[in-house]
Each structure stands twice: as structure tokens, then as C-alpha cells.
Amino acid sequence: MSPSPSRPAPFGRALCAMITPFTPTGELDLDEAGKLAARLVAEGCDGLVLNGTTGESPTTTDAEKAALVRAVRDAVGPGPSIVAGVGTADTRHTAELARQAERAGADGLLVVTPYYSRPPQPAVEAHFLKVADATGLPVMVYDIPGRTGTRVEPTTMLRLAEHPRIVAVKDCAYDLLGSTRVIAETSLAYYSGCEEMNLPLYAVGGAGFVSTVANVAPLRLRAVLDAFDAGDTAGAARLNARLLPLAERMMAGGLPGTVTVKALLGGPVREPLQPADRETVDGLRAVYEALVRSDQAESLV
Predict the structure, then answer these.
(1) CB of 190 within 8 A of CB of 169?
(2) Cα(18)–Cα(75) distance, rounded to whole angstroms?
(3) pLDDT for 264 beyond 70
(4) Which residues fall in the annotated binding site for pyruvate?
(5) Which residue in 104, 101, 173, 177 sits closest to 139, CA to CA?
(6) Which of 1, 15, 180, 181 has the largest CB neighbor count within 10 A?
(7) Half-sphere exposure of 144 (CA within 13 A, CB side)
(8) What are the E-state strand segments in 149-278?
């Protein structure tokens, strides 16, 4: 079911924060990236977010980022949305990456708050406005203060919403009150960036999710939104609850989501990240297999 006119979703509802595959020797694996992207779209993803946190953007070069966007665009065709992560701590570099992503075929830009330098709110606002002015692409503001050290305050978000190309937010601020206020007062499309907030944010008018867990369970995550849109709120809550053990193990178990996804799908990470140990891999697989068995049992009822 498509989102209603009152629920803007410029990039679709179900977006995967896609991993970046590497070869055993640590090189970018564009063939595998294309295959993964095609599978994710076939299994219910409306769009893919590349070169984000889950995509190991801190350890990929500018050239690799552009090559990944081009390869995924070729693999999935013109239909699904491709949102390219271009965020850095440097406004000028971020604008350069934005222009590069536009040339490579991206449909939108994911722009994180500048990190480490912890700029005050007027500087945060100026950063996003300059990047939005750098291309003709729509911008998704990435608000994740737990990683960047700086929040995009709701009052700042209200002002950013006035820019015609700032259209969406990936919300990892853990402030449902503030997010609900901005949703109510603007046309910004709010995408949950934290698995446990997918359904609560959607229930107050959010657009959908940008999910790391979608790398391994895209259909199941989308089913939660489908049930809610169909008016089956109890069913949406039940499907959401069924996903929680996997989401908790992948996202709150002490390892980055990139590591836990690759523990399930295979493939190396780049240092300084390290692969999951055998005990962690076995635990993740056990939880995932339990989810599969649960799905199979319900289908027999």
C-alpha cells in the first residue's frame, strides 16, 4: 500500500542502509554490491541508502563511494531510490561529495551533522543549507547525536524545513516528542534510523525507516508498515515484536550493525572494525533461524 498524501515519503517507505561488500583482500566488490542491491529491492525495499554508517563510509574513498552508487544504479535500474551518504566533518568536502553523488546517479543525499568539532546550532544550520544549495538533489538530514556529538535541535529542524530541497530526516535522536512536533509543523518526511523506533515513529506520522536490519530481513520489516497501513495495528505490533530479538541482537549487542550484518551475510569489514567472533556469529544465526521458524509456523496456521 502506498503512503497517504498526508504522509510524505519522497524516497519510499522501506529503505535499507546497505552494507558495502568487500573482497577477501579488502577491495570494493561491485559485483556483490549489485547482487545484494537487486535482492533487497526484490524483497521489498523501496530504496537503498549507500555510503552511510552501515556502509562503512569512514573507511571508503571518495572514488569508491561514487563507484558504488554507479554500480547499484546499474543493478537496480531507475525505479528504486538511491540515497547517497555524503556527510563529513567538513562542509566544503561534503558539498563536493554531494556533487559527485549527483553525477553518479543518486536520487537524494544523506547528510549527517558535522561531527567531532561539535558546531553550535547556527553553524549546523549553515552547514546543511550550503550542502542543500550545492546540487539539485533532495536532502535527508541525518540526526544522530550519539555518534556526532551534536543534535539538530527541533527549532533548527523547523528552519531547515523551509529550504525546498531539505525534504527528509533520518531520525536517531531518540526524542519522540521533538520529532512528533517537527512532523506536525512541517512537511519533512521522518524516517526512523533506530529499529526500536520504526513503528512508534510511523504511528505519529513518520515516513518509514532506514534500516540496517533490512539487509537481512527486508520483507519482515516492510510487513510491519503494511499491516499498520491496512489498519491492523495489533498485527503491526505483533510483527514488530517478532522482529525485536533479531534487532536487539544486531543493534544493541555491543557491535556495530555493519559487523553483525556481515556476520550473517558473510564478507569482511575494514579496519578499525573487526569481524564478529564465532560465538557472536552462532548467536546471531540462532536468533535469525528462530525468526524464520516462527514465520513458517504462522504460515501453517
Answers:
(1) yes
(2) 14
(3) yes
(4) 54, 210
(5) 101
(6) 15
(7) 20
(8) 166-171, 189-192, 208-211
